[in-house]
């Protein structure tokens, strides 16, 4: 995550302690629990290939609680309940309550359509602190992207229900060729609805989802969109609207922001660089993990074609610390495994090669250069000849 509001504008928040207050080597992973494959929408970019009916067997409530026990003992600070659509599981509030009892922060990644006012009150009661709700534009654009008419209206109702119940809510937008046209609309909606946080997700494609590359942005478009997001964020802050704005899944946004600040305010640029160094770039396999509905452990929620083991057979902490798997060993030592432009990049420690699963998708090698990096060779210090 690249926190534009903190790095560019100095807005400090409670969540900063997870990114900046201790060295990355001392952090335990935030765990994305993809609790179900089921979903009530048909999103064109879905990495879970989610059906609306029962699919593969899911961890039972007891098995999910055993996972939470293990994660709590390991020291994982946050459990992000995701899917599919996590609220398709009727025991979701119970699992969230259990995570909170075990001293973990419970957060939710959802399409928002199942959050009624009654559900929001229940989620607040069990200790949910944050709900990230996906909106990829206003009604027509969002419903088209999500594959179901009325999805926007239901998601907006879910956002309002969360706010009414006292749950912090944030928007999530995946950047594609169609959704970038909605950025200004989404910012306006965020202001109108008094939503305090928004995350813009760069598209992540894998070797199992090559078709979605067709909707990805070019390098020029990615850079222009990032700068547009920074500009809008700065304009809002100048008006006294102190929204949290972050970009996700393209760590080259960090060096890009540093280079921009270097021209505008060198003192602020160096402060931002130090924070980026502490954050440590892409956290796949180190600061972020994924456990799916069957108990399989993955490096992140996209890398579903390579499992390191199953929590029904071994505790998560044993799987996560076992470096006998070459991929896990490499992810724990990314800076020394990167090749090509990423290996030669002067911002390697700030970015850590960004998305290894995108590199694998294009080159068949998880240590090759991230194809989504839009910085020039000159900017990253790569010399030729």
What's the arrangement of secondary structure elements?
Elements: E1 2-3, H1 4-7, H2 16-20, E2 30-34, H3 61-74, E3 78-82, H4 92-101, E4 105-110, H5 117-126, E5 130-134, H6 139-146, H7 151-165, E6 168-175, H8 183-192, E7 197-202, H9 219-238, E8 244-248, H10 253-264, H11 266-279, E9 288-291, E10 296-298, E11 309-310, H12 316-321, H13 326-331, H14 340-344, H15 348-351, H16 356-363, H17 377-380
Parallel strand pairs: 2-3, 2-9, 3-4, 4-5, 5-6, 6-7, 7-8
Antiparallel strand pairs: 1-8, 9-10, 10-11
Helix pairs in contact: 3-4, 4-5, 5-7, 10-11
Structure description:
- With 385 residues, the chain is an alpha/beta fold.
- Helices cover 40% and strands 13% of the residues.
- The protein has 17 helices and eleven strands.
- It has helices at 4-7, 16-20, 61-74, 92-101, 117-126, 139-146, 151-165, 183-192, 219-238, 253-264, 266-279, 316-321, 326-331, 340-344, 348-351, 356-363, 377-380, and strands spanning 2-3, 30-34, 78-82, 105-110, 130-134, 168-175, 197-202, 244-248, 288-291, 296-298, 309-310.
- The protein has an eleven-stranded mixed beta sheet.
- β7 (197-202), α9 (219-238) and β8 form a beta-alpha-beta unit.
- α10 (253-264) packs antiparallel against α11.
- The two termini are 34 Å apart.
- The model has no long low-confidence stretch (mean pLDDT 92).
């Amino acid at each position: 995550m690249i926190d534009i509001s903190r790095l560019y504008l100095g807005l400090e928040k409670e969540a900063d302690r997870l990114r900046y207050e201790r060295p990355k080597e001392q952090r335990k992973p935030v765990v994305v629990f993809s609790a179900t494959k089921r979903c009530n929408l048909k999103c064109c970019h879905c990495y879970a290939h989610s059906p609306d009916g029962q699919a593969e067997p899911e961890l039972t409530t007891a098995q999910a609680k055993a996972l939470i026990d293990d994660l709590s003992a390991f020291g994982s600070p946050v459990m992000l309940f995701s899917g599919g659509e996590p609220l398709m599981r009727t025991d979701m509030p119970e699992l969230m309550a259990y995570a909170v009892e075990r001293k973990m922060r419970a957060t939710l990644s959802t399409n928002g359509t199942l959050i009624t006012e009654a559900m929001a009150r229940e989620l607040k009661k069990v200790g949910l602190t944050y709900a990230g709700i996906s909106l990829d534009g206003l009604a027509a654009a969002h419903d088209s992207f999500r594959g179901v008419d009325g999805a926007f209206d239901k998601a907006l109702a879910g956002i309002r229900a969360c706010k009414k119940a006292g749950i912090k809510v944030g928007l999530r937008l995946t950047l594609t060729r169609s959704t970038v046209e909605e950025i200004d609309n989404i910012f306006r909606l965020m202001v109108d609805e008094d939503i305090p946080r928004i995350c813009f997700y760069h598209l992540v494609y894998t070797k199992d989802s090559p078709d979605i590359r067709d909707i990805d942005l070019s390098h020029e478009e990615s850079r222009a969109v990032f700068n547009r997001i920074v500009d809008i964020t700065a304009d809002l802050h100048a008006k006294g609207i102190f929204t949290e704005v972050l970009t996700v899944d393209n760590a080259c946004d960090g060096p890009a922001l540093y280079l921009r600040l270097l021209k505008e305010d060198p003192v602020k640029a160096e402060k931002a660089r130090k924070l980026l160094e502490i954050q440590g770039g892409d956290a796949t396999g180190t600061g972020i993990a994924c456990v799916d509905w069957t108990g399989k452990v993955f490096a992140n929620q996209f890398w579903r074609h390579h499992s390191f083991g199953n929590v029904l057979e071994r505790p998560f902490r044993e799987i996560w610390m076992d470096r006998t798997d070459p991929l896990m060993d490499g992810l724990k030592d990314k800076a020394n495994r990167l090749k090509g432009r990423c290996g030669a990049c002067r911002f390697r420690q700030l970015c850590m090669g960004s998305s290894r699963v995108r590199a694998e998708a294009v080159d068949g090698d998880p240590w090759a250069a991230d194809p989504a990096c839009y910085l020039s060779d000159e900017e990253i210090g790569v010399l030729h000849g």
